[in-house]
């Protein structure tokens, strides 16, 4: 699956210039981070053609990545995502009503998305914003079957069972991970352990957990550039 996924996310706006032409800065901004996400790949022999292809798709194309050395144009299509509620750069979040933790996880995967797992304080803010101020939210972390130790939810095929890289628990938490409260929620002041059958709203993210890297990056060609719709 990794060969079919690419790209995502954002930080800086600049004039976008390439030897083959310029990108319309009234429509797109360059982003200097990319994340694994399902995209549509089309052949393209220039940056300007890739940009025009995304532009012609209008709001269905949220952004694109281009590599001249590979003559490839990766289009990030909203039609490939479901119920897109918020876009940050090229990361997409979707908000859903209350469900048990396992149901929330399964619903996100059925959409080819992932139950949101924040990797930083800024991503916590993004998730809260996507949830439109909802209080407690399920996130894709639990201790089920792990003797009180937290891991990303799901199995290896779902990018689960990974060590958790960012876990700002609220004061006094977690307090019951090894028994009755083995699923993790995003509380108003940090992470909290909770009973997995509690019904809470949740946010799905479009990108593979912990897949975001800053560009340039050795995993991508040196001329790999990404742009997000404004």
UniProtKB/TrEMBL annotation:
<protein>
    <submittedName>
        <fullName>C-type mannose receptor 2-like</fullName>
    </submittedName>
</protein>
<dbReference type="InterPro" id="IPR016186">
    <property type="entry name" value="C-type_lectin-like/link_sf"/>
</dbReference>
<dbReference type="InterPro" id="IPR001304">
    <property type="entry name" value="C-type_lectin-like"/>
</dbReference>
<feature type="domain" description="C-type lectin">
    <location>
        <begin position="88"/>
        <end position="205"/>
    </location>
</feature>
<dbReference type="Pfam" id="PF00059">
    <property type="entry name" value="Lectin_C"/>
</dbReference>
<feature type="signal peptide">
    <location>
        <begin position="1"/>
        <end position="20"/>
    </location>
</feature>
<dbReference type="InterPro" id="IPR016187">
    <property type="entry name" value="CTDL_fold"/>
</dbReference>
<keyword id="KW-0732">Signal</keyword>
């Amino acid at each position: 699956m990794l060969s079919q996924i690419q790209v995502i996310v954002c930080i800086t706006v600049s004039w976008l210039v390439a030897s083959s032409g310029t990108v319309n800065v009234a429509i797109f901004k360059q982003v200097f981070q990319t994340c694994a996400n399902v995209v549509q790949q089309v052949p393209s022999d220039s940056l300007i053609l890739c940009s025009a292809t995304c532009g012609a798709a209008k709001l269905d194309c949220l952004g694109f990545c281009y590599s001249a050395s590979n003559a490839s144009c990766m289009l990030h299509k909203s039609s490939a995502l479901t119920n897109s509620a918020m876009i940050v750069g090229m990361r997409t979040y979707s908000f859903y009503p209350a469900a048990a933790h396992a149901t929330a996880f399964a619903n996100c995967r059925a959409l080819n998305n992932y139950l949101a797992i924040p990797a930083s304080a800024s991503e916590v803010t993004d998730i809260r914003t996507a949830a439109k101020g909802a209080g407690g939210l399920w996130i894709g972390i639990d201790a089920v079957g792990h003797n009180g130790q937290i891991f990303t939810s799901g199995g290896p095929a779902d990018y689960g069972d990974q060590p958790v890289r960012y876990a700002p628990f609220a004061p006094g938490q977690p307090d019951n991970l090894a028994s009755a409260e083995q699923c993790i929620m995003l509380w108003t002041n940090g992470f909290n352990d909770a009973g997995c059958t509690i019904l809470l709203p949740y946010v799905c993210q479009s990108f593979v957990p912990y897949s975001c890297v800053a560009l340039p990056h050795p995993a991508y060609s040196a001329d790999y550039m990404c742009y997000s719709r404004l």
